[in-house]
Design brief:
single chain; alpha/beta; CBS-domain; 4-stranded mixed β-sheet; 3-stranded mixed β-sheet; 6 helices; 7 strands; 39% helix; CBS_dom
């Protein structure tokens, strides 16, 4: 049985909620990623910030990225999946919430990786991938 840990991109990195949007953009550039999990002071997941969030909710709103905390860009309840979850649970979580990136958490509630659409494309059958795309992108 394929687990979340088998398909995730390991080594994901947090950004603290009080860090600036500018720092988030720099980390995304340096890590070559389009999203970063956001942590609270206890290193617990409190959101995700994406490159799109930075453009739409900061730059387009004329906010100063060097002064704006990433916590201003996080919305809703953060979703995550345990590292030992079955891949079907991963798909169900992403499909139900129409999300494209999913943090993977270990038994100690620490971030161990991220699952993106690209990870799914590399590890799923064409049929499962097709079902995922249809459900996530359906209007």
């Amino acid at each position: 049985m394929t687990k979340a840990a088998d398909i995730m991109h390991p080594g994901a990195q947090w950004i603290p909620e009080n860090e600036t949007v500018l720092r988030a953009a720099q980390l995304m550039r340096d890590l070559e990623v389009g999203a970063l999990p956001v942590s609270d002071s206890n290193e617990r997941l409190c959101g995700i910030v994406t490159d799109r969030d930075i453009v739409i909710d900061c730059i387009a709103d004329n906010c100063d990225p060097s002064q704006t905390p990433v916590s201003r860009l996080t919305k809703g309840t953060p979703r995550w999946i345990p590292a030992d979850a079955d891949v079907r649970d991963v798909l169900r979580e992403m499909e139900q919430h129409k999300i494209r990136r999913l943090p993977v958490i270990d038994k100690n509630k620490r971030l161990v990786g991220m699952i993106s659409e690209a990870d799914l494309a590399h590890h799923l059958s064409d049929d499962l991938l097709g079902e995922f795309v249809e459900k996530v992108y359906a209007q």
